Amino acid sequence: MSTARPYLLTLLLLAASCDEDAATPPAPPAAPAPAPDAGLGAELGRLEGLSGEVRLERGGKMLPAVAGPLHGGDAVETGAGGAATVRFPDGHSVEVGPDARFAMGEDSGGIVMQVERGIILSRVPAGARPGSAGTKKVTLSILTPFGLTRVGSDAPSEVSVAVEKDAGRVEVRLGAIAFVGKDGQELRAAQGESVAVVGGKAELVRTPRVVELAPIPVTVRLGAGRAEVRPQGTVRWRPVKKQGEVLSPGDGVRTRPGGTAVLALEGSSSVLSLGSGTELVLESAGQGGTTDEARVDLRQGGLGLQLAQGRTSRVVLPGLGLEGSGAGLEVRRTATGYRVDAFTGQVTLVRGDSRQPLRAGERATLEGSSGAARVEPLAPAPLVLSTGDGAEVYHQGLSEVAFTWEGEGAARVEVATDAGFTRPVLTGTVFRPFVNVSAPARGTLYWRVRREDGTEVAKGSASFAPERPSKDLDRVRNVVPEGPEKTTIFYQDKPPSVTFTYGEEASAAKYRVAVYRVGALGTPVAERTVPDTRAALDAGALGEGSYLWSVTPLSASGAQLKGGRMNKLELVYDNSVPELVVASPRNGTRAAEKVRATGVAPVDARLSINGRPVPLDGKHRFSTWVEPVGTPPMLVFKMNRPGAPEVHTVRTLKPRGP
């Protein structure tokens, strides 16, 4: 029998006598169950989100841990840089930090997690499903050398449990818990309260614990494009140094359109990424124990956050704090507050005394400086990329892209700027089959998705760049000289502008140029009277076909000086374009309920716009009306060709006016 079993029996019996009418998680039943022992028992939860050194003890054998089920009797240890997450069927999860050990068991009232050392964070999100059909309700008892903490799943909660050599602490950040000390003392703690155990005596602490944080350096490095620094007390911005530079409190950082920059906290794997057109001021950064904190004033734009795994990471902005471990998200400044998109993991939104959970696949909208956030499901970005390598994306100002895969359920996502995934952009657990990622102005993103057991689900890569110069000929002016030889103009996309040239007549004051279709000399299709020896027609004035044209010199009074000679001209549509040519709309065009999209595609291409197939005519031209999508409004052109990667061209429009 485990040495902890008599102690567990006593605590479970004591917990059963707690006040049944208290508005806290239910008291445990009187009938006890064995504490975790070796041997393969029932599956109680799943181990996922492993990083660093994590070991699993099962049946008396200690082996490297892998993602997968945890059974009664299993024990898990994390090393100095290790971290893991235990997820239960109802959505309840427990995040395990470094240098920790716990064992799994259950009783008739729920699951028992015996924590011997380290820090764990129990979370019950707002989306948990207690008592739903086919889902077992989870009531978690966290057993430590100093007492028993019971966490229910009937309401959202967030509880941190720390076990040190001679002390323990239970901090209730959200919800409520019931605690039974080793001496039988019973305490109940609610949000903002903690139970501190020192020298075997438990005490309810009603004021938040203040953790002294030692200042740490923050280094800014250029990502792409242009980024600038403004030292505190100065008014001039200067480029970020090529090798990066350490910021001082009060220094400002901003990125120009298309530029990105990265802020790294020394001694932590937390990273803050400035997107295009973002400006912030660093107020402070500190570290203490397993806690990191960065305080910044986000003045405009978007800030990507990748919080360190296995630590409590905080990013504090004016009127909003974000806390979490191993989560990836973006915070964007709006006219009325903030918009927070959670891409991976789980975070807690902190506003004053209010704490609100936010998990991957959710968006929180916050207005003003106080009040609860409005949380709603996060939709995939308008540009969606599925499994496969080599996709090409051409854009100007695209903010994000969605990577998607088949199959539901929790999965671990990794996104990096290199194929070896040594330069991560986003990592963590997701609960829906997609993840949104900030789109770089230039560069390549690599991504892969794995299930909890390590099975690879999907992977891919995509390159990003500004749109290449178009083969559009609307700005090309083709010169057609007078003479006996026929002039042939080959064009792509749409008929070009044409300039007719001819010899000077000494007595002529002006010249009349007339253009006729072959076989229809009765009426000209175009006619110009000009004072010099060049006459221009705008692009599109002449369509595909065969023409005859003449130039007649005129006197000042308009009298014909001599007859004009007919010249031959032919315009031929030649679809030899090797890439998609989008004639309209152009970037920056004002959006409307529908906009016209025109252009030409290569001969063997298939085209869709905003997910809708677009028909091509016999010469692979298209002209159709399309509803813009996204914010800002955009059109996403997707081209497929046999044996070639997908090509996506994004045209970003100006929002519609009031």
Structural description of this entry:
This protein is mostly beta strands. The radius of gyration is 34 Å and the shape is elongated. It contains one helix and 59 strands. A hairpin with a 5-residue loop joins β43 and β44. The strands form eight sheets. The chain has a 17-stranded mixed β-sheet that branches. Strands 18, 20, 21, 23, 26, 27, 29, 30, 33 and 34 form a ten-stranded mixed β-sheet that branches. A nine-stranded antiparallel β-sheet has the order 22-19-24-25-28-31-32-35-36, with no helix packed on it.
List the helices and strands and how they pair.
Blueprint: H1 5-16, E1 43-51, E2 54-58, E3 61-64, E4 68-71, E5 75-78, E6 83-87, E7 93-96, E8 101-107, E9 110-124, E10 140-144, E11 147-151, E12 157-163, E13 167-174, E14 176-181, E15 186-190, E16 194-198, E17 201-205, E18 214-215, E19 218-224, E20 227-230, E21 238-239, E22 245-247, E23 252-255, E24 260-265, E25 271-274, E26 279-288, E27 291-300, E28 302-306, E29 312-317, E30 320-324, E31 328-333, E32 337-344, E33 346-351, E34 354-359, E35 362-367, E36 374-377, E37 384-385, E38 388-394, E39 400-404, E40 411-416, E41 424-430, E42 434-438, E43 443-450, E44 456-465, E45 477-481, E46 487-491, E47 497-501, E48 510-517, E49 526-530, E50 534-537, E51 545-554, E52 567-573, E53 581-584, E54 595-600, E55 606-609, E56 612-613, E57 621-626, E58 634-640, E59 647-652
Q: Give the rounded overall mean pLDDT.
A: 84
Helix content range: under 10%
Strand proportion, as a percent range, falls in over 45%
Computed Rg: 34 Å
Number of helices: 1
